Amino acid sequence: MPVARITMRKIKDVLRLKLDTQLSHERIAASLGLSKGVVTKYVTLASAAQLDWPTIQGLDEADLQRRLLPAPAKHSDVALPDYGYVHQELRRKGMTLMLLWEEHAAQHPEQRTHKYSQFCEHYRQYARTLKRSMRQTHRAGEKLFVDFAGPTLGLNNGDRVHIFVASLGASSYTFACATPRESMMDWLNSISFALRFYGGVPQLIVPDNPRAMISAPDRYEPGTNETVADFARHYSTSVLPARPYHPQDKGKVESAVQVVERWIMMRLRNTRFNSIDDVNDSIRPLLDRLNNKNFQKMPGTRASCFTQIDAPALQPLPAQLWEFAVFKLVRVHIDQHIDFEGHRYSVPQALVSQQLEARVTAHAVEVLHRGQRVACHARNMQKGGYTTVAEHLSAAHRAHMEWTPERLIHWGETIGVATGRFVSKLLHMRRHPEHGYRACLGLFSLAKRYGKTRLEAACLLALELGVTKYSHVRDILANNRDQVSQQDATQWTSPEHEHVRGPSYYQ
């Protein structure tokens, strides 16, 4: 806030209390509500002008000002700086008013120039004549302000497209493009297009507080979701949302949005487009015209300021394009796979039962453990399917992967014809042969427990009974039914008992 100029009446009081009453500078400052430096200044000026109190007492305020304060130099005698150029140069990172004043003085060695304090004061007066958004100090390559325009443009199919706007803080170099919505994907893809348009990356990206990007809107510690954080990491930048209900935090883009609405969207308001690409094709020449339009109160254009100020200060673009990714917490199942949208992807067996993070793009599923990638698969949309890397599995599971229907049937036939037929039925009566692999493994274990001869007999009995489950063969062996001959079964007779009628009762 500017300090009020001291009046000649108060200056006269200062001189009275010093020259007439001989008070100390400290007492005078406390009495008049001034600083000791101000008191010292005017006492020194009075001494230099050889003024005593009787002389001062006889002067009116106008005469005292002429005697005490030297007349300001006429503008014709002073080399005046270009304050528009000064204002523009201050946007460079590390630039100061002191350096600009020194350069101005060096450029006019044979002319009078303002002292540094006068130079600063005249610049502040100039800055107050500019628009509020232009008075903000923006360093070169520091901030990119982004937002969506309020109006939309229509397509022939009845849809409306939204207009994304970006503006660099120092140069006001503006970018605009059309998007189908204002989703998180639209936000981030549009910012990515803007960075490629600028050919570099700023230190900060300043959006509003859109729900699509900000997980925890807060005045002091706004939180971005993991996808936005991944975007920032890829481009080595930071996303700093503006404070809620504080449009002055992003006044640059507010002004840019207004300019885009007036200079571009209003020219396209009566046009109907077939696609978003048609909209962007129409925006491109109008955007180029806007960026090359001269400033009203400063020298140059947005494009020239960008070339001189912002472009050299931007960070280089990464070699790879950013791809939209979503993040999801997943848990590793006992089969050493994670599940995403109904499809299962393998991870190293040591991570079974642990919670991991999946980074999913349109083409890949990347599994992260404490920020480190432990698995990466091509994305598969088949629900119920498996994508498996053999190295991720245990030795037992890798052996399981080596089984095939032909190999299992061949194993069954080495035991006996009945076992081979039973294995074949186990595999082919299921929707997929792999669904019968575990049942076949169960038969293997029965052969080790009961022997191959008993297993062959049990499979034969199961086939005669018309059953085709592993559990049936297991029960036959457990109950020793494979050891009961068919002949013994036909010679069985009912015991005599008063409650048993016998077969003759029904004749």
State the name of the first-level CATH class of the largest domain: Alpha Beta
Q: Nearest-angstrom radius of gyration?
A: 43 Å
Q: What is the helical fraction, as a range of percent? A: 40-55%
Instruction: Give the domain tally.
Output: 5
Report, as a whole number of angstroms, the end-to-end distance.
Answer: 121 Å
Largest sheet: 5 strands, mixed
CATH architecture of the largest domain, by name, is: 2-Layer Sandwich
Low-confidence stretches: 216-223
Instruction: Examine the coordinates and then state which fold CATH places here, giving the name of the CATH topology of the largest domain.
Output: Nucleotidyltransferase, domain 5
Corresponding CATH superfamily of the largest domain? Ribonuclease H-like superfamily/Ribonuclease H
**Mean model confidence by pLDDT:** 80
Count of distinct strands: 14
Instruction: Supply the number of helical segments.
Output: 21
Strand order of the largest sheet: 3-2-1-4-7
Structural class based on helices, strands and sheet pairing = alpha+beta
- The 3D shape can be described as elongated
Q: Tell me the strand percentage band.
A: 5-15%
